Amino acid sequence: MSIKFKKLNKTIVNCKKCPRLINYIKKISSEKRKQNINETYWGKPVTGFGDKNAKLLILGLAPAAHGGTRTGRPFTGDKSSDFLFKCLFKTKISNLPYSLNLQDGLKLKSTYVTNILKCVPPGDKPMIEELNNCSEYFKSEISNLKNLNTIVTLGKVAFDNCIKFYKKNYKFHRKPKFEHDKIYLLPNNVKLISCYHPSPRNVNTKIISEAMMLKLFKKAKKLSAI
Question: Range of 105's domain?
Fold first, then answer.
């Protein structure tokens, strides 16, 4: 990890800008889920992870309450991550078919995974002020990923907020509509691919299937040339 990323991630972990979110994280980390009752939760803002020379960025909205907030890594330790990393492994983007914890040995090929918001919000509904507070961290991640050329957004809310970010920071005037496996060109020559969220609900109701996800990430690999 580069010095710039290390400094950024340290700032993110120590961030106290949003009292509502910090208090919610503390509540989750003390009450815990029954199946995680004996674990020590991460209980802090969650940084991104992956290859600092990444060409591909996988972007969610926020850490899961008992996934990233528990483990300290986005899309780690929950059902969504089980599905996502099975697909990333099959497309040879990750070296493991799972993402369990910070010590599992997971590595990504020219790929970085992060969330627009670094803390889980109550009800998965962040306030505009909280998104604005976190937007500078996401902006720093984008600027630090010098080789970035493709972004996959997981879910409509992540897609919508990614578009808002680009409109604010890069004078992006188009109004793209969320549609699974659709490609848009962003103003800094980055290609954006919209993807259904790999949540248990979407998987169980067949809104997204393994075949659909594999097809999308094969396309992302080709577009990003990794």
Answer: 3-30+50-224
